[in-house]
Amino acid sequence: MNVVIIGLGAIGRMIVDGVAGDESPVRLAGVAVRPARAEEARAELVSEIAVFTSPEEIVAARPDMVVECAGQAALRQYGEALLSSGLDLMVVATGALADGDYRARLLAAAEKGGARLHVPAGATAGLDGLGALKAGGLDKVTYVSTKPSHAWKGTPAEQAFDLENLSESTVIYEGRAEAAALDYPQNANLAATIALAGAGFDNTFVRLVADPHAVTNCGRIEAEGKFGHMIMEMRGQPMASNPKTSAVTALSLIYALNKETSRFVI
Question: Which pTM value belongs to this model?
């Protein structure tokens, strides 16, 4: 399967390494970056991997799958053009899907092109359980994301709290999933993923926590439905180059890509 990734940050580099080697069923055909980074990317990557700087260049290459791992702005730049051209798209920046109008445009583009929009698990687990409970009647989902205080720098929390001098675990946001995903685009994409997989944005409640003593990024899901009650907790090591996200995110993408090629699917 030929794959193009959008973005060559912490997640993108881990995917490049994860699909390298002749034994991998996934072939990395190209990487899309901002024009200003194109020469740097060409110097960093092997010659067999093309470097793209526009949606049109990716469409011309006709990969089997495109993986966005560059943030909500990149998804908005590339998403509709790729889907409407018939290219399947897997997204990390699922927080953009909390915007109902934009989500509808992406789905319309996918319908036009006969393509599929893939939402991977990312830095969580249990989406299959949420889907099962949803089918049976899911009432409410609560998602709690706890990260080290410094991981919330550059977010609205930095304006409201003295993150560098917190002495105890502090709730920096509490409310519905839609606002969490849109207001914290680098930290709370999972709020949207969980809402989409389960009870929807109106019935998914989010608590974001800055903890000066935390050493992992912890996500906890609690779901209640007619046919059961689910609690799931994932503690992922933050990426050294980007503490806002967990290495599990990249591993999830590699797993999802490999599953697309497998004859035995679990």
Answer: 0.93
At residue 33, what is the residue type?
V
Alpha carbon 113 to its chain centroid, in Å, reads 23
pLDDT averaged per 10 residues in sequence order, the chain, 266 residues: 96 93 89 97 94 98 98 97 99 97 98 98 91 90 97 95 96 97 94 96 96 96 91 92 88 95 90
Compute CA distances 64 → 3, 59, 101, 245, whole Å. Answer: 6, 10, 27, 26
The structural domains of the chain, ordered by start, are 2-119 (3.40.50.720), 127-243 (3.30.360.10)
Contact 230, 133 (CB under 8 A): yes
State both tokens at 116: 């599929």
Residue 118: beta bridge partners? 90
Radius of gyration (Cα) for the chain, nearest Å? 18
Bridge-based pairing state of the strands 242-246 and 238-239 = antiparallel
